[in-house]
Write a structure and sequence with these properties.
This protein is of the alpha/beta class. The protein has one domain: Rossmann fold (3-Layer(aba) Sandwich). The chain is built from 5 helices and 8 strands; from the N terminus they run βαβαβαβαβββαβ. The strands form 2 sheets. It has a 5-stranded parallel sheet with strand order 3-2-4-5-6. A 3-stranded antiparallel sheet has the order 1-8-7. α1 packs across α2.
Length: 177
């Protein structure tokens, strides 16, 4: 059983709100770079970059991180990891990095992504933007920019579908079997 909690229009509005919060918080976009977590985080990151570039009339560097091998629990999750590889083709030193993910849950994915970014250099800051923030943190990680906060019971989980990866934009709450 699944319940739609955000449709394409709600996702678009949330991304717009996140973009404006990012610009306001950073007093513009001159020092920004955006990094998305593979897979849907990079889909959302590309949308964020496109909107910031349009508003600020600036070109932003964008990259992606694959956290597969950085997860402290990846051996529990998969037998054979399917690492895609990170792609950061710019110097992150001194940059304000906007790290983008679809759902923030335990904090382990965000922590792993931060580790990957720090392997590329030392940014001025790393700010976390997520489309959905849900309960269940296991690490002391909080988002800076949130599209929507949802309460999820232990027998449910949140799935984000993006047009780029899944053919449609929606966020659904799914009951575990």
């Amino acid at each position: 059983m699944k319940k739609t909690i955000m449709n394409a229009e709600a996702i678009s509005r949330s991304i717009d709100r996140i973009v404006h919060q990012i610009i306001e918080h950073n007093e513009g976009a001159k020092n920004l770079a955006v990094v998305g977590i593979i897979a849907r985080g990079i889909d959302l990151a590309k949308r964020i970059v496109k909107r910031i570039e349009k508003i600020e009339n600036i070109e932003l560097p964008i990259g992606s991180v694959d956290i597969t091998l950085y997860r402290d629990d990846f051996r529990e999750l998969v037998d054979i990891p399917d690492a895609k590889g990170s792609d950061i083709q710019f110097d992150i030193t001194g940059k304000d990095i906007i790290l983008v993910d679809d759902v923030l849950y335990t904090g382990r994915t965000a922590r792993s992504a931060i580790d990957v970014i720090l392997d590329f250099g030392r940014p001025k800051s790393i700010q976390l933007a997520v489309l959905v923030d849900r309960d269940g943190r296991e690490l002391p990680i909080q988002p800076d920019f949130v599209g929507r906060k949802v309460e999820v019971r232990a027998d449910e989980y949140v799935q984000v579908h993006t047009e780029e990866t899944d053919g449609e934009d929606e966020v659904v709450m799914v009951k575990r079997k």
